[in-house]
Design brief:
Elements lengths: L1 E2 L8 E8 L2 E7 L14 E8 L2 E7 L12 E7 L30 E4 L5 E10 L12 E5 L12 E5 L5 E5 L13 E7 L7 H7 L1 E6 L5 E4 L7 E9 L5 E3 L3 E4 L3 E3 L9 E8 L8 E7 L4 E9 L2 E4 L11 E5 L8 E6 L2 E8 L2 E4 L8 E8 L8 E8 L2 E10 L2 E4 L9 E8 L8 E7 L5 E9 L2 E5 L8 E7 L8 E6 L5 E7 L4 E4 L9 E8 L8 E7 L4 E7 L2 E4 L7 E8 L8 E8 L2 E9 L12 E8 L2 E7 L12 E7 L12 E2 L5 E2 L11 E5 L4 E10 L12 E5 L21
Antiparallel strand pairs: 1-2, 2-3, 4-5, 5-7, 6-8, 8-9, 10-11, 11-14, 12-13, 12-15, 15-16, 15-17, 18-45, 19-20, 20-21, 21-22, 23-24, 24-25, 25-26, 27-28, 28-29, 29-30, 31-32, 32-33, 33-34, 35-36, 36-37, 37-38, 39-40, 40-41, 41-42, 43-44, 44-45, 46-47, 47-51, 48-52, 49-50, 52-53
């Protein structure tokens, strides 16, 4: 065997054997004067990892005596720096080769197989033909990663409703044995089929959405069909291609999501209303009803979408009504409250509410509505309920802020009923519907037409008997008001009636509107397509129910679990140009008040103001007209209008619009305009010059800017005598 036993850089050898029958072991020293030189170390080390295997490569070392191609190599691999516990080079760290042999590797590359997960450190040395080892190369490392990343939070995916076609999902960042979290990638998939935990099935059959990295743990899934059920998952990858999968999450788009931050008092037998009582450009809320421990009436102030109980002291009522209206024409919202033997009118004085001590009977199980019955520019009151003499219905006229009984005879007064006013016949004065339960416990309804400021009982569609609730709305955008009603019959039902100009025709198909008792209904264009939709809640013969209808296409009850003994209202509480929904009532035995935010991606645009304003004066009567506004969503025939009259420029002291002209006509209340047609009539008792304008209101109750202000002058208020039959009218009828 060869070997440099005396370390003089040349090979000696040892001879062991038998010579002439004798065993010999002789070392022969090489006394050559030519010393071997140490080769240089390899360079440009590279590693390529494939699962548990690695291919290691380097460039050739060099030597003064041995040709580069004849050099061999020794490898050192360890799991710690300068370690050799995986592959030992049989050399010292300084490169001294412990065996007088060629290196084990006769090429510039080698494969190492079957490694486990971990970080490996490696170096290589050259071995020349004299078996001299070079110093080791610089140390390099490579990583073998056979473990999959571990999804965070047990693989939970959380869906966040974005709108009707988009959902944002979030997840907790994954962890990995080798990689830093920021180096992991996340692939998002969606499918109408649940592919479970099979990464292969998701990659082959799911729809790839996006890939994220650098600690981004959310993704937007778009282009979804409203109401369709989908499944989503996230596949996490490390830098070595190992994959983990998050739990599959069922997702579906919702038009509404509950505002869980809103902490309203829960009430049933309730009344709710939106109104910007503090005139700051966002809608506040009043809520009344029966709590789990008593009764309450509370006003919540809206500040940038956050609601705070104002602590304003008001009578606590249930089975009654709260309603905003500007009775004193100062363009802020006053308040009427009725129920539990209470009827109070409160004047808004810079956000404080003062009882005006109106002489109106306190009623129970009652309803009330504001409306300008006499077309004199101020709001009167219609009220119905149970009083000291039984069931009573009254009209109280507003004369300079004082309310006096009108003397109108209103037959068919009702308990636990409703009062609603509107100009259903488009003759420029408001008419009246009342309904509910009579003294015999039978549900019924009465329509009164306003004829020269007297109420005339009209024949009504017989199918409207047993009606317990009604609400006006122009669902077909033909400029006259239709009705949605709830009825208390053997099966309980609700129905839409179309106003055809001379009668109300039931629209039987295509809707199957259920819920007829102890409920409510509300119109509003919540999908911003320019026509009215509606929501209905109440008892059915089976259970409590809440149904949402896009015009006449039922969306079902999934978004709003069934309510009864409830009231509800539409309003854009977050000023994002779509209608949100407030519901208070009994939800499966739980007394609750819930605010649902509209997540629609389709936003409403405000209408344009009317044009070509004109007025004509005859004595104290002023006739107004204008041409229609226009709107991107609501057709011109579906717009309503809101008039403003003042005794000074931009004034409103004669007829308050309950809107803020200086902020582009923002509506203080969420209602249609009081005029369905392109004209109006007002009777004013005083001479002088007046300033007026009008705004358009669309089906989402958004107001246009007011039109360019016009003026008119009343010079003579003397009445024009004509032949007319007068009759005396009795005091309010009490039934």
């Amino acid at each position: 065997n060869w070997g440099d036993y005396d370390n003089d850089n040349d090979l000696d050898f040892i001879l062991i054997g038998t010579s002439q029958g004798n065993k010999i072991a002789t070392v022969y020293e090489n006394i050559s004067q030519l010393a071997n030189t140490v080769p240089s170390a390899p360079d440009f080390l590279t590693s390529i990892v494939a699962n548990a295997d690695v291919t290691l490569s380097w460039s050739s070392g060099s030597d003064a005596e041995t040709d580069n191609a004849a050099l061999t190599y020794q490898l050192m691999i360890g799991t710690t720096p300068q370690g050799k516990n995986i592959v030992s080079p049989m050399s010292l760290n300084n490169g001294y080769h412990l065996l007088p042999e060629a290196g084990l590797i006769h090429a510039l590359t080698t494969d190492i197989k079957g490694l486990s997960t971990g970080i490996y450190y490696w170096r290589v040395q050259s071995i020349d033909s004299s078996f001299t080892g070079s110093s080791f190369s610089d140390e390099y490392s490579f990583t073998v990663d056979l473990t999959s990343p571990v999804p965070g939070n047990n693989g939970t995916i959380t869906p966040v409703i974005s709108d009707t076609s988009n959902i944002t999902i979030t997840w907790a960042l994954a962890s990995d044995t080798i990689d830093d979290k920021k180096d992991l990638q996340y692939k998002v998939y969606v499918s109408t089929t649940n592919w479970g935990s099979s990464i292969e099935n998701w990659e082959n059959n799911g729809s790839f959405v996006t890939i994220t990295s650098n600690n981004v743990s959310q993704a937007l899934i778009s282009g979804l069909n409203y109401g369709q059920q989908y499944f989503a998952t996230v596949v996490v990858l490390d830098t070595n291609g190992n994959k983990g999968i998050y739990s599959t999450q069922m997702i579906h788009t919702l038009l509404f999501t509950e505002d869980t931050a809103a902490n309203f008092i829960g009430v049933k037998n309730s009344s709710v209303a939106f109104g910007d009582y503090d005139s700051d450009g966002d809608l506040d809320i009043i809520i009344s009803g029966e709590t789990s421990s008593g009764k309450a009436t509370k006003i919540y102030q809206n500040t940038n979408g956050q609601f705070q109980d104002t602590g304003i002291s008001l009578p606590s009522i249930s089975n009654g009504k709260v309603a905003w209206g500007d009775y004193d024409n100062d363009n802020d919202l006053d308040l009427v409250i009725t129920g539990d033997n209470v009827t109070k009118i409160y004047q808004n004085n810079q956000g404080n509410f003062d009882d005006i001590n109106a002489s109106i009977p306190g009623l129970s199980h009652s309803d009330v509505a504001w409306g300008d019955f006499e077309n004199d520019g101020d709001l009167d009151i219609f009220i119905s309920g149970t009083g000291s003499s039984g069931v009573e219905t009254y009209l109280y006229l507003n004369t300079n802020g004082t309310f006096q009984a009108s003397g109108e005879s209103l037959t068919g007064a009702y308990e636990s009923g409703f009062v609603t006013v509107a100009d259903y016949d488009n003759d420029m004065d408001i008419d009246l519907i009342i309904g509910g339960y009579n003294q015999d416990g039978q549900a019924s309804i009465r329509l009164y037409q306003n004829e020269s400021f007297h109420l005339k009982l009209m024949d009504f569609n017989s199918t409207l008997n047993n009606c317990t609730f009604a609400s006006w709305g122009d669902f077909d955008n033909d400029s006259d008001l239709d009705l949605v009603v709830l009825s208390h019959t053997e099966n309980y039902f609700s129905q839409v009636y179309q106003n055809n100009g001379s009668s109300f025709i039931p629209i039987l198909a295509p809707v199957d509107t259920r819920a007829g008792k102890n409920g409510s209904a509300a119109w509003g264009d919540f999908d911003n397509d320019g026509d009215l939709d509606f929501i209905i809640a109440g008892e059915t013969i089976y259970s409590d129910n809440t149904d949402l209808y896009i015009n006449f296409n039922a969306l079902g009850t999934g978004e709003f679990q069934g309510f009864s003994n409830c009231d509800m209202a539409w309003g854009d509480v977050d000023n994002d140009n779509d209608l949100d929904l407030l519901i208070a009532g009994d939800q499966g035995g739980m007394i609750t008040t819930r605010l649902y935010l509209n997540m629609s991606s389709t936003k409403n645009t405000i209408p344009a103001a009317p044009e070509n304003l004109s007025s004509s004066v005859s004595g104290s009567t002023v006739n107004f007209s204008w041409t229609a506004g226009n709107d991107s969503e609501t057709p011109a025939s579906g717009l309503s209008y809101n008039l403003r009259i003042g005794s000074t420029p931009e004034g409103f002291d004669i007829l308050s619009p309950m809107a803020l002209p200086l902020t582009q006509g923002f509506r203080l209340i969420t209602e249609r305009g009081p005029m369905q047609s392109l004209k109006a009539t007002i009777h004013l008792p005083y001479t002088g010059t007046y300033y007026w304008s009008v705004q358009s209101i669309d089906t989402a109750f958004a107001g246009s800017p007011f039109a360019t202000e016009q003026t008119f002058t009343i010079a003579d208020t003397s009445p024009t005598l004509s032949e007319k039959t007068f009759q005396l009218t009795p005091l309010p009828l009490k039934l």
